[in-house]
Design a protein that fits this description.
It comes from Desulfosporosinus orientis (strain ATCC 19365 / DSM 765 / NCIMB 8382 / VKM B-1628 / Singapore I). This is ABC-type nitrate/sulfonate/bicarbonate transport system, permease component. Belongs to the binding-protein-dependent transport system permease family. Its main location: membrane. The chain has about 260 residues and is mostly helical. The protein has one domain: MetI-like fold, CATH 1.10.3720. The chain is about 85% helix and about 0% strand. The chain is built from ten helices and no strands. Helix 3 packs antiparallel against helix 4, helix 3 packs antiparallel against helix 8 and helix 6 runs antiparallel to helix 8. The chain starts with a helix and ends with a helix.
Length: about 260
Amino acid sequence: MLKQVKIRLQGVILPLAIILIWQLVSNYGMVNSYILPSPHHIYFRCIQLIENGSLQQNILASLIRVVIGFLTALLLSIPLGIILGLNQRVKLLLNPILSFFQQIPGIALIPIFILWLGIDETSKIAIIVYSAIFPILLNTINGIETTDKNLIEVAIINGISKVGLAYRVYLPSMLPSLFVGMRLGLSYCWRSLVAVELLGASKGLGYLIQQGRELAQPETMFLGVFIIGLIGMSFDNVSKGFEKKIIRFKSNDYKED
């Protein structure tokens, strides 16, 4: 426990040093404050936005979009990934079209989605889903296909049912790969969300950055960028912790069975 705390504290040293140097450079006027506002000004801008409630509203709007888009991507990609991983004929049939769309970034489809779905929330959610679905799908397929063939054969010889095969063999095998896909998918959700909000939204962190640019408030732009990074990092850390607990639980459950 103490070792983990020590490691985390060491990880904070460099960011704090950068902020300190940044503040000193700003205090001595070595950088134009419009180009690079000081941490002091960014902090007070943050307090102002918290006091008037706009920061919370923008963060909440972005989080809602990410959660809806990510959960939708999970519901679509995991079942499809399992089907493609278990059925080579279906995979051969769908692989060309999936490979084609995999190469097209979600940002490139924003004008088309707006044309089809309008400028409201539906098009924003659709872009987020599209951006997240391929990392989750491909890692689900990989998890299924890399399952140890010897384990599958032993399970079949022992007369295990298809449900038991899925639960006791495929699921433990695919979990590590699936969680990698989920973490990547969540990261892609966050990135595509900011792009969508920058191009057209009335609230959200991307909108906050755009508003800062239009009002010539660089401290607002930097604040939005920092919050995006902090929330994205928090998402990734929570995902890692959840991944460790689930995999440990499934491993213990598998051993007991």
